[in-house]
Amino acid sequence: MEKHFEPTQEFKINFLGIKLFRIKATRKSKYVNTGYLGGWVEKDANLSGDAWVYGNAEVYGNAKVYGNAKVYGDARVSGNARVYGDARVY
Length: 90
Known about the structure:
Elements: E1 5-13, E2 19-25, E3 37-41, E4 52-53, E5 58-59, E6 64-65, E7 70-71, E8 76-77, E9 82-83, E10 88-89
Parallel strand pairs: 3-5, 4-7, 5-8, 6-9, 7-10
Antiparallel strand pairs: 1-2, 2-3
């Protein structure tokens, strides 16, 4: 499946000193339209499928958000965590 987002040049350093990039939708997907700005990821491998990260939420480390999952609010998904299926983390 073609990737549905790209990291923007906007970044922040989280409380652990990890550089996170804001994501932007590159095509319409289940949850967002093209151009929609999302939350923060460390790398492309953190997000796949139709999953989406919103607002101030952060995904980093070896964590993966995929399938139809959503991460939003001030949530942090990290380490080796897996968020998938129809899961919601907020």
